Amino acid sequence: MGKRKTTSTNLQNERFIATTCDLTYAVCLLSGRWKLLILCHLQDGILRYSEIRSKIPGITEKMLTVQLREMEKDGLVYRTVRPEFPPHVDYGLTEMSSELIPVWEVLENWGATHRKSAINATP
Amino acid sequence: MGKRKTTSTNLQNERFIATTCDLTYAVCLLSGRWKLLILCHLQDGILRYSEIRSKIPGITEKMLTVQLREMEKDGLVYRTVRPEFPPHVDYGLTEMSSELIPVWEVLENWGATHRKSAINATP
DNA sequence: CAGTATCCATTAAGATACTG
DNA sequence: CAGTATCTTAATGGATACTG
Q1: I need a surface site. Which of A5, A29, A39, B16 has the fewest CB within 10 A?
Q2: Cβ of B40 and A23 within 8 Å?
Q3: Of the candidates B37, B25, B30, B31, the residue with the CA atom closest to the CA atom of residue A32
């Protein structure tokens, strides 16, 4: 019935801790429409929930929350709640995710270059 | 009918050519369970369809074909068919995707380091 | 060998409304 | 302010069988 009998390679659910490939492991931790983008914005410093949201046009609150929570669980962001009212929650990179800064630097440059070509090439 | 009325942010379908963010553009071109992994294997040289498949345990023929075709369309791999029987098809990196080699190098190292920690940390 | 085709299960993502 | 909850659709991934 609701059971998987097969190799069971869900991206988000089982987080691929047991995968045998380091690259696959990394890809799985970072896969998601918004994760790299969120991390990239956090490299400039600690941001509040609403600050991240306003820096990423198009993201819904639900997706922002989901992705932040997953990344927190995976050790990619830390989350600090200040016991105030109104609530105040800070997010920042961890040591682990800081090591990925070169990744989005390369990707951003690469994207900039080739997006321009793609736009110019569209008839 | 088959029409989207909303912001329309499908990952694979509309390929995000019109996105306003370079990083998002890059992420969208590379998103997919297998793309980085395939590209990574191709950095060692030209590979045939069956060679890629055997280097990536767990991938199905369908997914390999789908991802290769998308990447070919996006200029991330090239595909050469030799008019022989039995068929012989070669795949290789393009200039564009060669620029991404640093990305998977970082990711692979990062994955290696932190996967070990994750495995050791699991109770 | 290098794929296609079909069908189906699971997951990601989005809209919208609501809350402590 | 910083989220939840609920519902819906879109997209991904897989099993299996078949083909030029």
Answers
A1: A5
A2: yes
A3: B31
Structure confidence by residue, pLDDT tens digits, B26-59: 998 998 879 999 999 999 999 999 999 999 988 9
CA B113/CA B115 separation, integer angstroms = 6
Q: CA A48 – C1' C3 distance (Å)?
A: 50
* A36 pLDDT tier (thresholds 50, 70, 90): very high
Q: Which two tokens stand for residue A65?
A: 């929350």
The three-state secondary structure class of B17 is coil
Closest-CA residue of A relative to B35 is: A27
The total of other beta-carbon atoms located within 10 Å of residue A113's CB is 14
Q: How many residues does chain B have?
A: 123
pTM (two decimals): 0.86
- For chain A, say whether B103 makes contact (Cβ under 8 Å): yes
